[in-house]
Amino acid sequence: MHCPFCGHDDTQVKDSRPSEDGSAIRRRRFCTACGQRFTTVERVQLRELTVIKSDGRRVPFDRDKLARSVRVALRKRPVQEERIERIVNGIVRQLEASGDSDIPSKQIGELVMETLKEVDAVAYVRFASVYRNFREAKDFEAFLGALDDPT
Length: 151
Prior knowledge:
2 domains, 3-stranded antiparallel sheet, 3-stranded mixed sheet, 5 helices
């Protein structure tokens, strides 16, 4: 593992711990060249995922991008960081378990919306407003009206 501070390729693991939900291992590392300490996270990856964008482009799946979008939707909401991590891990597991390495971006967006709907209604609406590209207040009204209508 290269040191993020000096680029030296000889770092030592000082401590390893499983994450709270057991889905990752956090390692504290020490650089023998510059003496800096840093943390790495190791996760199981079942398969390489590729996202197929709406314009047809293919890009590698980025777990951090997914986590950022979930965090933005849940910003200032009463949801703990550990829960957010479990949400992201659950979505990634569903994508990996789908059996297909090529995942349409629409499928990812729908999974996030389904999950946020169960977790926090405000975060669900926030995410939907970006995902569905709301442009005017009437777009929110129509969406919220559909939420109230159980059919």
